[in-house]
Amino acid sequence: MTRAGLDKEPHDVARMFDDVAQRYDLTNDVLSLGQDRRWRRQVVRMVDPRPGELILDLAAGTGTSSSPFAAAGATVVPCDFSLGMLTEGKKTRADLPFVAGDGMQLPFGDDTFDAVTISFGLRNIHDPVQGLRELLRVTRRGGRIVVCEFSTPTWGPFEAVYSNYLMKALPRIAERVSSNPESYVYLAESIRAWPDQRGLALRMVEAGWGKVDWHNLSGGVVALHSSVKP
Question: Are residues 145 and 122 in contact, defined by beta-carbon separation less than 8 angstroms?
């Protein structure tokens, strides 16, 4: 089984997601205690898809996060660099136009999308700031971005409990439900190494996005960062 490291070498990360593709959605549901569904609904609300818009859903995996945009009348392009994820997604969501692509060099022209979003994927891009620059490049002026990513709990005592869950309980639960439990050790490590809410906002500004706002979910376990292309 493949496990990526914190150096986030693209081929290692892609192989790791290929390995977990078959049971990825189920595993996320179990490990988040069902919270991932609520988080994704909040992403859709914040993106605010409109009929006729073109939306990029980067790191879309099997397309679970993409379907609500299509249901709202927008044209959504699910993009991921794991061929295993895309193949799995095509089995149940054949209507979606899945595209294989690397977040460091997106296969789209400049100023293409009305909105771009990435959920739980920016953390896995080798250079997240470059990934944010690419998302900026393919977004039309005045277009919007929503980043959904794990973050830092805002209440100290809860942060300690959450950290213990990440490093001890999460890998053990993954052993029961995931096809590659070792990958969830990487998941826990990458979450702990990820910047807090303000740190991600600063990286988005560094990449060229305008004023960044963020909204905490589940006490800061997850944060939604949003901005508009100047």
Answer: no
Give the other-Cβ count within 10 Å of 142's Cβ.
10
Give me the pLDDT at residue 168, please.
65
CA end-to-end span of the chain, whole Å?
43
Q: How far apart, in whole angstroms, are the C-alpha atoms of residue 30 and residue 199?
A: 28
Per DSSP (E only), the strands in 16-133 are 54-58, 75-80, 99-100, 113-119
- Closest to 132 (Cα-Cα) out of 54, 229, 67: 229
**Alpha carbons 224 and 102: distance in angstroms, whole number:** 22
For the chain of 230 residues, list the mean pLDDT of each consecutive stretch of 10.
Answer: 49 63 55 76 97 97 96 98 93 96 97 97 94 98 97 79 64 57 71 93 98 96 97
Q: What is the pLDDT, as a whole number, of residue 190? A: 82
Query: How far apart are alpha carbons 209 and 203 in whole angstroms?
Result: 9
Q: How many CB atoms lie under 10 A from the CB of residue 210? A: 14
Amino acid letter, residue 70: A
pTM reported for the whole predicted model: 0.86
Separation of alpha carbons 78 and 65, rounded Å = 9
